[in-house]
């Protein structure tokens, strides 16, 4: 789940395969620290998220909060 600091939800993905490098830098950094089965709540500052780049669901310079559960890792 992804939310803004004010609680506005912008993402509610469930069991989605992801590749490191396809996501904002802060999310990639969090994934690299996780082990399968772990659950993290990650606060990603704007400079490691979308920063000043426009996104339809996320205002510029927004801190993002993600609840992440890493189910497995494929190498």
UniProtKB/TrEMBL annotation:
<dbReference type="InterPro" id="IPR044609">
    <property type="entry name" value="FKBP2/11"/>
</dbReference>
<dbReference type="GO" id="GO:0003755">
    <property type="term" value="F:peptidyl-prolyl cis-trans isomerase activity"/>
</dbReference>
<comment type="similarity">
    <text>Belongs to the FKBP-type PPIase family.</text>
</comment>
<feature type="domain" description="PPIase FKBP-type">
    <location>
        <begin position="1"/>
        <end position="74"/>
    </location>
</feature>
<keyword id="KW-0413">Isomerase</keyword>
<protein>
    <recommendedName>
        <fullName>Peptidyl-prolyl cis-trans isomerase</fullName>
        <ecNumber>5.2.1.8</ecNumber>
    </recommendedName>
</protein>
<dbReference type="Pfam" id="PF00254">
    <property type="entry name" value="FKBP_C"/>
</dbReference>
<dbReference type="InterPro" id="IPR001179">
    <property type="entry name" value="PPIase_FKBP_dom"/>
</dbReference>
<dbReference type="InterPro" id="IPR046357">
    <property type="entry name" value="PPIase_dom_sf"/>
</dbReference>
<keyword id="KW-0697">Rotamase</keyword>
């Amino acid at each position: 789940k992804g939310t803004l600091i004010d609680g506005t939800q912008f993402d509610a993905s469930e069991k989605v395969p992801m590749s490191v490098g396809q996501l904002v830098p802060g999310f990639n950094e969090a994934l690299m620290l996780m082990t399968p089965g772990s659950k993290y709540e990650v606060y990603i500052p704007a400079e490691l998220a979308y920063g000043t780049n426009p996104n339809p669901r996320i205002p510029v310079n927004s801190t993002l909060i993600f609840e992440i559960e890493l189910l497995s890792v494929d190498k």
